[in-house]
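Hey, quick one: can you model this chain's 3D structure?
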Amino acid sequence: MLESEGLDLVLLPGDLTDEGFCTKVIGDAAKKLGGLDILVNNAAYQQSKSSIAEITSEQFDRTMKTNVYAPFWLSKAAAARMQPGSSIINTASVNSFNPGEELLDYATTKGAIEIFTKGLAKQLAAKGIRVNAVAPGPVWTPLQVAGGQLPGKLGEFGQDTPLKRAGQPAELASLYVVLADNHTSFTTGSVFGANGGTGAV
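Sure thing. Here's the predicted structure for all 201 residues.
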């Protein structure tokens, strides 16, 4: 869609659970794009389990590395290159403050992202780099159909919100755009909800 509008895209695929790749991809992006002034940390891993006993060390490790380590590595590399006026936008979740019982490891990572956002915002304020986060509620993403919901529960996803439905990714896009825009230059260390009316964040 973006290419059809005449925009140039740079694709840099790789494994975000690998520190070396995370460091390299920031350098590659800056080189190919002619600089780096916006970083959106949005990749995540999620597997629903009804009990802590069902969460393997392998799952816990992958969830942590994807959801916490990767944003840390990417942000660290990006902050070293970014100029004043730049913006880092993390993706937290409603689970960061209201965890679903079946998403224990995922919710733990999202809580970490919320605190990471607030702490990093304080660190980078002196450099003129803003750090904020979007905290979606139930939104249809590939996570949901790839093990993100307990068996038999997918049809109920999002039905418990006041809007009685899950959101679509496009309904979150404008939040990221606003947070990337320098017109929100006084906003840093904040978390913005998009949760179908639950009133959280």
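One thing worth noting: Helices lie at 19-33, 57-79, 104-124, 142-148, 170-180.
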